[in-house]
Amino acid sequence: MRLETNRLVIREFVPEDWESVHRYASDPKVTRYTLWGPNTEEETKDYVAGMKAMQQKEPRTHYEWAVTRKLDGELIGGCGINVSGSNGEIGYCFHADHWGQGYASECAKAMLEFGFRQLGVHRIYATCRPENIGSERVMQKIGMQKEGYLREHLPTNKGGFANSWLYSILSHEYVPES
C-alpha cells in the first residue's frame, strides 16, 4: 500500500526503516508531547516489527506508514489512521528537522483522503497535547473542528495521564484539494 502527495511518498514500513525511525523516535524534542518515548533502539525495532505484522491483519483496521520525501527518499516521519466502526483516528510524527515545512499538513490531508474515500469512514478525529501548538495548527489547517478537551484520558509511559484537545471532521465536511 502506498500513497503519494506533491512532495511525499507514504508507504508501508519495512524492517530496514528502524534506524531512520529511531532518529526521531529517540529525540526528546520530538517525543515531548507523545505518550511514548524517547525510545530505546529495542523499542524502535519492536515498533517497526509491530507495524510490519499489522500489515498482514485481515480485516485491516490499523494503517501506520513511513513518510518519505519524493525528492530524495529520506524517511522523515510516520503517520497513520486507525479505524473503529465508522470512525478513524489519524496521527503523525516528524523528525524535528522537518517541522514547519508543511509536511505534517500534507500528510494529514492524505490520511483524510484515504480514510473518507478508501476506507469509507464517516468521522475522522485526532488529538494533541494542549501544549503542542504545531499539531493543533495542523488539525485546524486540514479543516478539523475543535470538539473539546479530554482530561487525563490516556496513560503515558512517562508517568501520569495526558490531557488532549480533540478535533474532528465529518465526511460531508471534507473538501478534497483539486
Tag the structure with descriptive keywords.
single chain, about 180 residues, alpha+beta, 8-stranded mixed sheet, globular
Task: Explain the overall architecture.
The two termini are 22 Å apart. The chain is 29% helix and 34% strand. 32% of the residues are buried. It has an 8-stranded mixed sheet, sandwiched between helices. The chain is of the alpha+beta class and 178 residues long. It has 5 helices and 8 strands. The longest helix is centred in the middle third of the chain and has 16 residues. Helix 1 packs across helix 3. Strand 7 and strand 8 form a beta hairpin.
Poorly predicted spans:
none
Gyration radius over CA: 15 Å
- List the helices and strands in order: EEHHHEEEHEHEE
Distance N terminus to C terminus? 22 Å
The count of DSSP E runs of length 2 or more, i.e. the number of strands, is 8
- Determine the fraction of residues in helical runs and give it as a percent range: 25-40%
pLDDT averaged residue by residue: 96
Q: How would a crystallographer describe the biggest sheet?
A: 8 strands, mixed
Give the overall shape, derived from the CA principal axes: globular
Tally of helical runs: 5
- Spatial order of the strands in the main sheet? 1-2-3-4-5-6-8-7
Relative strand content = 25-35%
* Sheet/helix structural class: alpha+beta
